Every structure is written in C-alpha cells, then in structure tokens.
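Reply to dn_fold:

You asked what the input looked like. This is it:
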Amino acid sequence: MPEEAAPAPERRCDASLAASLRRLLEPRHLAFIGGTRAVSAFQICRAKGFGGQVFMVNPNVAEIDGVRCCPDLGGLPFAPDAAFIAVSAEKTIEAVASLAAMGAGAAVCFASGFAETDAAGAEREKRLLAAAGELALIGPNCFGVINCVNHGSLWPVDYPTPALPPEAVVVSQSGNVAIDLAHNRRSVGFTHVISLGNQAGIQIHDLIDYHVDRGRVRAIGIFLEGLHDVARFHDACAAALARGIAIIVLKAGVSAVSARIARSHTASLSGSRELYAGLFRRLGISWVRSIPEMIEALKLASVWRRGGRRIAFFSPSGGGASLAADFAEAAGLELPQPDAEAARELIRLMPSYGSVSNPLDVTTALYGKEAELTEIATIATRRDIDKAVLLLDPQRADGTIVPGFAPMMAALVAAGARNGVEIGIASMKPESFSEEAQRELIRNGGLPLQDVEIGCRVIAAAAEREERRREAGLIPPLAMATLCEGRDVLLSEWEAKGVLARHGIPAPAGVLTHPSGAADASGALRYPLAVKAVSRALPHKTEAGGVALGVRSRDEIAAAAKRVVGQVAAHDPAIAITEILVEEMVQDAVAEFFVGLRREAEFGLVLVLGSGGILVELVRDAATILLPAGRDEIERAIRRTRAFALMGGFRGRPKGDLEALLDAIERLASFALAHAGRLLELDINPLFVRAKGLGVIAADALLRWIEPE
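and this is what came back:
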C-alpha cells in the first residue's frame, strides 16, 4: 500500500494577507508613483527583466523611457498588484488610500516623516495605516523589495542579481543594511531582500509566516533593531524551526547608544540583550555578530542540509590546523580523533614528518595530489564525522586560482560522497575565495566558508538549531497574561517564604517574634542563627543594616535584635520594625544560586537564574529563560552559569543536588504561571543547594504581586 500522506502543516498566514503578500512578492503588474526615486525604481525593474506590466504615475512628465506616464492613479487601467510610492509623507497617505480603494495588493512607502521623527509623525503613521485597510503596507521609511524570482522589484537603487538558485530571504529594518547584504560576493542566492523600515503595516513575523506556509526557502536572514510584537515573532519562529527553515538574526540596539539610534531610526524599542538572548536560544535562532557572519550563516543553510558538530579538518599547513582547532573549541565544535585502525592506515599514507590527528596536517608534500588525498580523507571521515572541511585559500593575490584547488576539492567531494559526510572549504581570509571558486564548490555540493573562525561559529549555530528542532513541537506560546486589578504589594520576607513553602520551596527553620522576645522565642533553633528585621517596607535588608549573621547565644540574639532595629531606624526613620525573624543558618551548602521571576511588558514572564549571594550583581552570571519552559531548557540554562561548576564536586566537595534544584525551579515556574495575572516580581537569593539527596533551601525571598482590593 502507498504510504499515507503526512498532514499538511497548519497555515499561519491568513488567506487575505497571504494573497496580498503573494501579489507583492510575485507580482504580475507594478506601479511607480513619484519623482526621482520612483523613476529610478521603475527603470531598475525594467532593466532587471521583469516580464509583467509596469506603470509610471507622475503628473509632471509625459513619458519615461517610452512608457506613458499617468497623471494620477485614476489613469491606471486596473489595480496593480503592488506599487512603489516615493512622494511626501502626506501625499503617501493619499496614494495609499487610493490604491486600497481600487483593490491593489501592496504598497512600498519610501517616504520618511512618520513615527521615527516625533509625535506628529507618529499620528501621521496611524493615519497611513488606517488608509491602507487590507493593503499590505511595507514601510514607511524604507527602501522596498528586491525580487530575484521574477524581477518585479520595488527598489530605487541598483543591485546585483545572484547567480545561484534562490534559497534565502533577507528582511531588514535598515535600508542601507539591506543594500549591504544584497551587494555581497559570497554566493548566496536570495529570493527577496525586503526593507521594512518602521513596520507600520507588514511586520517581520508576517513575512516569516508567509514563507513558512510557502515552504520555498531554507533560510531567513533578519537585521533587527526592535520588535513590535514579540509574541507573534516567537510563534512565527517556532513554526519556522519546526519546518526546518533557519532564522538568522543580526540584532542591533543592545548597547545604550545603539538602542537610542534604533529608536530614532525606525521607532523600534530594542529590548535588552539578555531578553533577546533568551528568545533566540529558545527558538534555535542564530544570533550572528556581523553582516559577513550573517551571509555565511545564510549560505550554510542554503547548501548544507543537515546539522552536526563533529568536524574533520584537513590542512596543508600545521599553523592553519592549529588555528582551526582553537576556533572550533571556542565555538563548541567537536573534533573526534582517528581511532586506532584509522590512525594505522593514515600513518601508512602520510609523510614521516606528518602527524595523525584532527585537524589533520596533510603537509605540503601531498598538496594537490587527488588520489592520495581522496584515500586519506575517506579514512579520516569514515566514522563519527558530520562535516569534512579543508582549510585552503583558493585564490592568489593576483586573482588566479591556486593549482591545488581543483584536485583537493575533488578529493574532498569523493570522500564525502563515499561516507555520507557534508563537505566544505574554509579560507583564512575572506578575499582569497573568488566567486568562481565558490560557485565551483557549490556546484559540487560543497560549502565555501570565507573565514574559518566565522565558519566554525556558523557551523556550531546550525548544529544547535538542529538540536533545538527536535523539541520544536514542544515550544509553547509565551506567557503574556494581563495583570488583574488591585494593589501592588511587596510581601515581607516571612510572608514570601510562607507562599514559597506552600509551593514546595523550603526555607530554614525559624520563628517570627517581637524584637523584645527574640531570645526567648529561639529556644528550639540550632546555632548559628541569623537575626533579620521584617517589614513590608524593607525590601533590601542588608543595605539598611537589618541583618545579623553568625549569632551563637541567647545574649547575642537579644543584642542583635536591638542592633538591627536601631540600624534600620537610622537608615530610614519612617520604617518601624515590630517583627524579627530568627532562623537557622545553612551550613552545608554546596552552591548558591539566584533565582528570579520578572514580568517584562514585551516578553511576558521571564525566569532569571545564576550565581547567588552578595556577589549576584557584581558577578553578573545569569541565564534568562522565557516562560513557559520545560525541565530540559531549565537544566541547559543552569549548566551555562558559572555557579554550576560548584555542583560537580569542586575541589573535593560533595556534588550538589541538581535534581532538587531543577524541581525547585520547575515549581517556581509553575507558581509564576498559576499567578500570571498577579505576579510582578519574585527573587530568591540565595537559594542554597545542598549535597546530593539533601535538597535546596531558600535563605531569603522577595515577592511583589497584586492583591485584589
């Protein structure tokens, strides 16, 4: 019997929007409205070979390049699929309204003067969006769309036409960055390069959803300054991950200065580095550092079809091999060494002064020798290898291709085919890999990487993305609950610990008492003790002198209680301390963690964890997780912290109770979701982790939430 067909994926882009975007990205007819910029876009579209109808709308010119100009949109014979509008901001609104009324599909709004300027511009942008109605609006304040599929571009500056099959899309909030990405010599085939500007209408997630539904590209590169709708972006990227479409992001606006520039440039809120890092890691998004790294990542996703971080490097240079090993280790790649059988075979084939290892220095004696190198590469990639990469600069300074390139490439291709290993060639210098050599390698199924250090990073990122893809179906929507009505209340430490105890997070044994009775109330507790001032008005006790540690007698308890009351009064006379917490100090902790829950307006509920204790702000060792999150994601975050090193039996100490720590954090995450409409902030610092089997203890806690009136 024939195999049952797999169910079609759920469509993410609604039918009306999908139809409009298709008219934009695969147009049959186009209109260009305005003066110099519109004329330039009109001429470029025709020069690139667009086969559909084009119309020019300009009341001041009779014809352009033999095409009659219409004085206004009413002169068009029918509604165009899409239009490029390059007139003033106010006239842009009028043109958009006319196009929407006549049933056009989409419009690119080139003009600035909208939300990126001032309050008046923001109001103008609202009117523009209202005028658009069902029209797919690109911009304003943008360059438009480069179309390398049917060349129906809406773009006012010249651009190169990729020579390779289109496998990737680029979406950029910056027009000039989009130009930079389009003008590259790194052999990436784009279907479209889209400049979105202010994202008043079509947003990044709309384009991701459209391409997930179409399923015709392997990668989407995004130059991102800020998101208007993090939750929709999250869900679109989760769908792309499940579909096997790589999302590669170059994120600007993570520094204070850059964030201000992003705000004035496209009216985008940039968000913090930590929040975006958590978002990208959750979704398998590759966060690249530069335009060259973005292009290399797009190229990798377009050429290679599988993940994997086990790499075999080959080099005719020992120095190059050593550098590659350093770069691979820094990126988190694995370099499996040849097993005993492979080592014996390689020793037989290698010169006596060569060494058998991974990376393998094939020496200059074998440079360009196809038959010998084919055998060596076949043996070295026979087991436990995902990718085979040759380190070679194919182009000389005079522009000629080095004689050894063709035979060494052929050897790698043959070995890869025999062992089912994907292959690549990585240069030490980006300029020494000519476009001719790149295309020749790609035609043979190989990946040209123009800079071995960047190459290691993009290989590792692709491997991580593939690992995350196995969990793609388990990624839930972000927790974006609306706050309920009520009072913003900060609970005292005693109250906060009581709430946590009811949700399975234990606190040290302790008693709450009046300062005058602290010594009498502590009878059943074991020394040493902590004596703490308790008040809803005192969130940070240590800074106010409200904590005494290492108390070892009844007399010391009484003195400590009197002292902390006086110190708090000196710090802030408005705070009257009427309650004292006396509790046992944890003596057997293996590690101290900070665990916090936050409410972020754009990202929902966020979990932060890292090194705890008094150095939490100084060390700044933290991992950020967006909620909801599964146990595996929480464990990966814990393992990224420096505090985790203490959990493995550091310097002969016992191993920490990792399972109890995971249990506690899972309970906190569940607590946050159960109280999503009330929770504002929760900190546990420190959360002591004891030896394996002994659990965890929350030594201090802060909880803010909404209490109904």
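The CA atoms of residues 81 and 332 lie 47 Å apart.
Hope that clears it up.
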